[in-house]
Structures are given as C-alpha cells and as structure tokens.
Amino acid sequence: MKNIRYYLLFLTCVLTVGIVYAEDPVRAWGQLQVKGNQLCNEAGKPVSLRGVSYGWHNLWPRFYNKHSVKWLKEDWHCTVLRAAMGTVIEDNYIENPEFALECINKVVKAAIKNNIYVIIDWHTYYPQKAEAKKFFGMMSEKYGKYPHVIYEIYNEPMKDTWDEVKEYACEIIKEIRKHDPDNVILVGNPNFDQRLDLVAESPLEGFQNIMYTLHFYAATHSEQLRNTAQVAWEKGIPIFVSECAGMEASGDGPLNVEEWQHWIDWMEVHKISWVNWSVSDKNETCSMILPRADKNGGWTEELIKPYGRLVREFVRKYNADIYE
C-alpha cells in the first residue's frame, strides 16, 4: 500500500512542480528495508545514506527551515538529514513541545518535498518513555505513509543497561508500528551508542527493519571501537552511524583527519550509512557553520568552518553515485 501511496505522491509532485530530478535519493531508492545486516533499497540492493545532522533544535532553531534543507541537498549533496529534537537542556520538547514540533515539522516536510531521507531523532541521554511513546505515535501517524522517514528513538543512552534500552525500545517500536509498518527504526545502545557487543549478544526479536546506532568521534574513538562494531556486524547486526565527527568526543579539540578517514573507509567497505554532526554555529570544532552565515544556506566556503568544509567534501565525494 505504501508503494501505491508513494507513486501517487510522485505523480502529484510531477504534475505540480513539472520535474523530479533523477538524482533524488528517495526516487532512486524508494522504500528502505533491512535485509540481514544491510540497509537496502526497495529492490533489496544494499545502499548507504550519507549526510549531516542538524544541531539540537532548542539551541540552533534558526537552521531548521525548508531553505537549509534544500541547500544541503543541492549543494552538499546529502541523501539524508537528521533533525535532532532536543528533549533535555533548556527550552526542550518536554518544556516547549509546540516550538519543537514547529522546528521538526519544517525539516521533515522539506525533506519529503526534496525527496531525501530524514531522521526524526529523539535527542536525549535519559529514558523519557511516556513522552517518547506519545511523540513517535504522533510522528508515525503523520509521516508513516512517506518512505522518506527514519525514526531514531533514543539518541545516546548514557546510564541505561542494554536490557533497559530493549524494554524501552520495544514499547516505542510497537507504538510506531501501529501507524507505520515498514519505515526503518534506529535503536541506541549503552554508553553513548558504543556497546554493539551487548546488542550482538541479545538483539531485539520480533521486529523488522530495525537497525542499531553507532556514534564515534574520530579523535577519541579509533580501532578498538571499530573492532567492536566489526564483530557485531559479522554477527549480523545492522549498523547505522547516525552521528559521527572528526574531533574529540567533547565536540571540540583538533581534528584527527587520518583516523576519520579510517572510519569512513570502514563504513564504505561495509555499506554502513553515516551522518555527520552538526549544522550549528557554536564556537567549537564540531559546529560546521559560522554565526554570521545565513540560516537558509547559500554558504560560501568562507562561511563554513574547516570541519564543515571537510564534511561537505566527503559527502559530495561519496554521494557522487547518486548525484552524478
């Protein structure tokens, strides 16, 4: 049914806009699915998404707009964007849900219009089960008919055990599946998404199109974490790198470009999707954009910080197969 609905949406887009570009990722790959340890397109062929994450919506809301989405697709050649909806820190979703939904809906709707994939990210370090269940029920009812959408249900569990994360995940997944039977769901794991070894010992059962997140910062995390992930991948665990960067785990400090390239090489070999953190303008290494840059995109090189320039270069390079 979803394929029929998407075909009708596609025809509507053609009739309304007059053209849909051949390089549009969702047009090219359609409904994503998980087969074994691989993310695959609608035809069952492995694919890798590459793009960037917005920073916390409650800290950098200015970038959450349709124009930046269009720019990140057309100039940076992203095939996926991540909308990091903060549920902690000041002015978060729990405290100000109306503003949070306004930010997230702008990005999701623009991603659908531009035919790229979008991750709806519950960006927190603590379990907030009741609120998350209500939120993802609402999001899946609203957007579940679109093949563009991916759900990330728990950004980075910090102190939870894997059993606790599993219990949480089961409830949220069941709520999503009431409205959306097939879009991909990303599940976090303990210690800031570092414990894929625990996932491999006891993965979730009874669900389809589930993947597990891995987060790394190359100047802090290197071969040891890669080896852990490699073992999990060899055991059949589907991995999605929904957040990564080239500096220290603090988000600051010097870049380790050599180690970052080792990570990219590893992800490319295994066709593992990767999303870079973040579209923000704080005075730190991981914020890609200068404060004086326009919120809507149109960023020339001098408005992009050194890390952001490398991210753009990498994303354009490795997405060349879809944006030819």
Descriptive notes:
The chain has 324 residues and is α/β, with parallel strands linked by helices. The chain has eleven helices and ten strands. The strands form two sheets. The protein has an eight-stranded parallel β-barrel, surrounded by seven helices. A two-stranded antiparallel ribbon has the order 1-2. Strand 8, helix 9 and strand 9 form a beta-alpha-beta unit. It is globular and about 50 Å long.
Task: Record the SSE blueprint.
Layout: H1 2-17, H2 25-29, E1 33-35, E2 38-40, E3 50-54, H3 66-74, E4 80-86, H4 97-113, E5 117-123, H5 129-143, E6 149-152, H6 162-177, E7 185-187, H7 190-193, H8 196-201, E8 210-217, H9 223-234, E9 239-245, H10 257-269, E10 274-279, H11 306-318
Parallel strand pairs: 3-4, 3-10, 4-5, 5-6, 6-7, 7-8, 8-9, 9-10
Antiparallel strand pairs: 1-2
Helix pairs in contact: 3-4, 5-6
